[in-house]
Design goal:
72 residues, mainly alpha, 72% helix, 2 helices
Length: 72
């Protein structure tokens, strides 16, 4: 069986995956921020996740558009 994907279908998949990943990243950041007395490695994770979030927001602008936050 052969399956053909259109450009629109691929764009929709990418949009969905990026939005899902972004929401998960935001939840991880919230969980780390709400925890008390984080071990050093989790503090490093929090810093890295914040940097990753900023980079991911730029990526979302490129793939989804500048109004991507309306889709959250």
């Amino acid at each position: 069986m052969k399956v053909e994907l259109t450009g629109e279908a691929v764009d929709g998949l990418m949009r969905s995956i990026l939005l899902q990943d972004y929401k998960g990243l935001c939840m991880d950041i919230e969980n780390l921020e709400s925890a008390k007395d984080l071990p050093q490695y989790k503090q490093e994770d929090l810093v890295a996740n914040r940097e990753y979030k900023a980079a991911m927001e730029k990526l979302m602008e490129y793939y989804i558009g500048f109004d991507w936050q309306r889709e959250l």
